[in-house]
Amino acid sequence: MELFVIGIVSLLAAGLTLFSGFGLGTILMPVFSLFFPVPLAVAATAVVHFANNIFKFGLMSKQADWRVVARFGLPAAVFAMAGAGLLNLFDRMPLLTTYELSGRNFEITAVNGAVGIIIMAFALLETWPRFQGLAFAPRWLPLGGALSGFFGGLSGNQGALRSAFLLKAGLSKEGFVATGIVSAVIVDAARLVVYGMGFMADHVAQSGEMLGPVVVGTLCAFAGSFAGKRLLQKVTLRAVRAVVGAAMFVIGAALIAGWV
Fold first, then answer.
1. In Å, how far are 77, 107, 147, 175 from 150, measured between CA atoms?
2. What is d(CA 258, CA 260) in angstroms, rounded to the nearest whole number?
3. Shortest CA distance to 27 belongs to which of 157, 204, 218, 176?
4. What are phi and psi of 109, to 5 degrees?
5. Interval 159-177: pLDDT, tens
6. Distance from CA of residue 151 to its chain's centroid?
7. 75 phi and psi, to 5 degrees?
């Protein structure tokens, strides 16, 4: 069941990200969290996200503006490692509290609470029209990289911030996309190193269980990116974004409450 759900969501998310304003990781991470502990869900999403962007990197890296990559991507890498380290710290914190509801016991943890709050916040931001038009001057690129990388490392949510800071960097349409892809690859590589040295080593058995879902998610993401470019260009996705945002908000609340 989990393979089917993850595959379908990866397929749809990879296609929709071309038009909806959401990133693949933003949509996929909450779904992984339904089947795995939150830190492993973030790591699994990072692997799928990394593989999908490596594919795009091979196609578009020559069109990237490497001066912008240096100003944005390098701070993003450093702070992605910091965010990933903080996620590891949250994972090691003791249980906060438990409660009973309808005869069932639920646990509230620091890692679920932190990631749940971030998911809810980004769900609101990415469905807020004023945020969609937000763009920062080029002088703020290093700050944008730091913020994007930090939240990418902590929760996997980075695409919206990355776009807001790259929009006014003086890039062509192709350069904007390619520079964003290169920056995302840098962030994913940096945070995966920390994940591998941290909580993934603490969850060896469950890390092995992620292999199938990650492979399925990656292959379906490739297929979704390929199909989305051809089949969804005439589709209006305002309603889709609203539905996805609402679903993210609900899953974030469920994480905080200990229901997931």
1. 8, 26, 5, 23
2. 5
3. 157
4. -115, 160
5. 778 888 998 888 988 888 8
6. 9
7. -60, -35
Contact by Cβ (8 Å): 156, 46: yes
CA 62 to chain centre: 24
The model's pLDDT over 85-141, given as tens digits with 9 standing for 90+, comes to 999 999 889 999 999 888 888 999 999 999 999 999 988 887 787 777 778 899 999
Angle formed by the axes of helices 110-126 and 159-166, to 10°? Answer: 40
Phi and psi at residue 181, to the nearest 5°: -65, -45
* Rg from Cα positions in the chain: 18
What whole-number distance in Å separates Cα of residue 201 and Cα of residue 197? Answer: 6
Going by the DSSP 8-state scheme, the letter that residue 72 receives in this structure is: I
Structure tokens at 12: 């749809």
pTM of the model: 0.85
Structure tokens at 251: 């899953």
Cα of 121 vs its chain's centroid, Å: 13
Contact residues for 208 (Cβ-Cβ < 8 A; gap 6+): none
Token couple for 189: 């590589």
Phi-psi region of 171 (alpha: psi -120 to 50; beta: other; left: phi over 0): beta
Beta bridge partners of 96: none
Residues 6+ apart with CB under 8 A from 135: 164, 165, 167, 168
The whole-angstrom separation of Cα 28 and Cα 33 is 9
